[in-house]
Amino acid sequence: MSTFALIPGAGGDAWYWHRVVPLLEAAGHRAITVDLPAADDDARLEDYADRVVEAIGKRKVVVVAQSLGGFTAPLVCARVGVEALVFVNAMIPVPGEKAGDWWGNTGSEKARVAAAKRGGYPAKYEELAYFFHDVPKKVTKEAHAHGHEQSGGMMSEPCRFKSWPRVPIRVIVGRDDRFFPLDFQRRVARERLGVKIVEIRGGHLVALSNPKGLVKALLEVS
Question: How do residues 142-188 score in pLDDT, each as one tens digit?
Fold first, then answer.
């Protein structure tokens, strides 16, 4: 049995994982979710990590980070016992990088626009087109009720970690992700971690659109 510590992305709402948690538990595992201080302009990255570390306690965990949660993950890994680290359509930082700089450093915007032109969907960002294009309508409606604004305060703070933990590291990518396209994520995983990605069906919010596929991929790590 493993314990999965599930870190949400922008908006910091633990609800994001609500379709994943019961599937992990049905498979005999534990899941820890946490709300992050995303609406607090004064919250620092360490405050985000504090929330997760407090929820984990003394457990040894598989750390799972979605999207912006990738910047919280290395800080958590430095403070708790870790079995494995999993990125899910995530921003993968390098030591000392700011989340606000990540976009330009990785070329994410150029990759997003290029993928939109190839795929025939709007190059101009639209929430429904980029985040909810493959999420069931009922879940999309619920998501809007749970939505939180993401403060930009933590975006200007360096992600202060020295190195990645010496544990298995995996990068799970929704092959239909329009926000961080497949080829882009493949390149970033190779350049920054030296690992290959694991592809599954689904877009950027894959925990909402394909929870079964995501859990299957997570269980192959544990």
Answer: 998 886 789 888 999 999 999 999 999 999 999 999 999 999 999 99
| The overall pTM is greater than 0.90 | yes
| DSSP per-residue codes, the chain | --EEEEE--TT--GGGGTTTHHHHHHTT-EEEE----TT-TT--HHHHHHHHHHHHTT-EEEEEEEGGGGGTHHHHHTTSEEEEEEEES-----TT-BHHHHHHHHTHHHHHHHHHHHHTS-SS--HHHHHSTTS-HHHHHHHHHH--PPPSGGGGSB---SS--SS-EEEEEETT-SSS-HHHHHHHHHHHH---EEEES--TTHHHH-HHHHHHHHHTT-
pLDDT tens, position by position, 24-81: 999 999 999 999 999 999 999 999 999 999 999 999 999 999 999 999 999 999 999 9
Provide the domain limits for residue 87.
Answer: 3-219
For the domain that residue 8 is a member of, what is the CATH number? 3.40.50.1820
- Domain count for the chain: 1
